[in-house]
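Need a sequence for this fold. Nothing fancy.
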């Protein structure tokens, strides 16, 4: 049976300066590591034989209907503007219409160099591919908007990095689209108003058909991003590279490079090895996304007939965003402590718990989960610090709240802990994919108690602590 992907190619119909057409660089021996059958059903994809599917999803074979291309974009990276970036190791194969009627991009990541590779080899090694597979699927299980993983394919070739030769792999990523803030910045920086208008029209038609004008689009993207980042924070997630080229206007989490989940709670936690200034620290994410939306607003201004008036209107929208994030954060964390509809007056109670957690080096995930069992105090160096907070918390809960029911769905028992991801990658490099499969199985239902997997909920021992995570190159 041949693999069937019902490709659409709307992005390929945009002007030629939006992308470069090219096929993937063939690999030596593509072999399927894992194929996401359930996601394939959602996308209407019928896999062929494992060998043929591996060839298609490594780029060795172009599926009928596919028009592979590398997208161009710009972006602010750690605050500095790069006027031209682009898919340096990825190819958009096309889109499909899923079972809900939504367009979804199918993209290969690690498929070889493109004109935008900036001297890179365009490849990915096995570790980052498996990490993105696990983390993106976990984020989906948490209920947070995210790209998905359709497949991971081994290439049979070595990829050379600082650590020497490492096994190569290619990820097949699924996204609502790969339109980024940086895509708009690319055309705005060139004063290419025609291109900017074409991009705006395409983005609206694809993601926001109800909007009326650039201001409305900005407001909608701000709304989605505010909710997304609050969601990240509610599960202790740190993106690590919140550059504008990694900010999708769809409101999905995209580009899992040096991402990580906190163990011990501290608001200024940083894992990314390249974030030496802590720009994208856990607590800074709420500020950075506002800055990113300001860059999006700036890119939209040239579309407005009265640009002075637009600047005033767009500035007001961006300045209102911190309050939106605060509202979404309060809702998310209110649920984590069993308050279904947290109001402004609940913010001090939430903040007090987090402050006590930081002072007592409490594990972020396990502390909130333990509120369900009455054992949260065990997470604190000084249990009395929790006891003092608990009395205020109990007094706040009312008969209208269903704390156990709310907390059971808001507080995962399992996250992709950094040390487990590292152990998974070490095993995979040696050919053992059992830890990878086990993590995927457990994280598919992160809010369920799974006693047989209790070791995966354990924080790292001192010699297991991961200090730095690295970009997925």
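Here you go.
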């Amino acid at each position: 049976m041949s693999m069937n992907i019902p490709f659409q190619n709307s992005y390929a119909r945009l002007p030629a300066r939006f992308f470069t057409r090219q096929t993937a660089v063939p690999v030596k021996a593509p072999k399927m590591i894992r194929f996401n059958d359930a996601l394939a059903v959602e996308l209407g994809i019928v896999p062929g034989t494992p060998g043929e599917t591996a060839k298609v999803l490594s780029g060795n074979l172009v599926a009928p209907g596919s028009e592979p291309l590398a997208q161009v974009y710009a972006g602010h990276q750690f605050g500095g503007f790069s006027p031209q970036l682009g898919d340096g190791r990825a190819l958009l194969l096309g889109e499909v219409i899923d079972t809900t009627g939504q367009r979804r991009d199918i993209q290969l990541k690690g498929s070889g160099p493109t004109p935008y590779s900036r001297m890179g080899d365009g490849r990915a090694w096995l570790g980052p591919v498996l990490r993105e597979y696990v983390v993106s699927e976990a984020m989906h299980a948490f209920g947070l908007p995210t790209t998905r993983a359709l497949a991971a394919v081994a290439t049979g070739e070595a990829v050379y990095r600082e650590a020497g030769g490492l096994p190569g792999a290619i990820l097949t990523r699924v996204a609502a689209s790969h339109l980024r803030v940086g895509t708009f910045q690319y055309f705005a920086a060139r004063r290419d108003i025609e291109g900017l208008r074409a991009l705006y029209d395409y983005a609206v038609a694809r993601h926001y058909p109800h909007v009326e004008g650039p201001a409305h689009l900005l407001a909608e993207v701000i709304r989605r991003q505010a909710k997304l980042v609050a969601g990240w924070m509610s599960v202790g997630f740190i993106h690590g590279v919140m550059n504008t080229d990694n900010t999708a206007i769809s409101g999905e989490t995209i580009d899992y490079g040096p991402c990580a989940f906190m163990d011990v709670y501290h608001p200024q936690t940083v894992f990314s090895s390249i974030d030496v200034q802590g720009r994208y620290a856990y607590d800074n994410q709420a500020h950075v996304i506002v800055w990113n939306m300001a860059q999006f607003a700036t890119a939209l201004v040239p579309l407005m007939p009265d640009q002075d008036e637009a600047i005033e209107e767009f500035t007001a929208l961006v300045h209102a965003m911190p309050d939106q994030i605060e509202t979404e954060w309060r809702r998310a964390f209110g649920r984590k402590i069993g308050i279904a509809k947290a109001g402004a007056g609940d913010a001090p109670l939430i903040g007090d718990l987090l402050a006590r957690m930081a002072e007592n080096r409490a594990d972020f995930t396990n502390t909130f989960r333990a509120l369900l069992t009455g054992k949260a105090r065990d997470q604190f160096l000084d249990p009395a610090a929790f006891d003092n907070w608990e009395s205020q918390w109990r007094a706040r809960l009312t008969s209208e709240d269903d704390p156990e029911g709310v907390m059971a769905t808001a507080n995962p028992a399992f996250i992709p802990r950094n040390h487990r991801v590292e152990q998974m990658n070490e095993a995979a490099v040696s050919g053992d994919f059992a830890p990878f499969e086990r993590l995927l199985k457990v994280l598919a239902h992160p809010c369920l108690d799974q006693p047989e997997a209790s070791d995966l909920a354990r924080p790292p021992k001192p010699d297991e602590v991961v200090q730095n995570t690295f970009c997925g190159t």
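For context: The CA atoms of residues 442 and 450 lie 8 Å apart.
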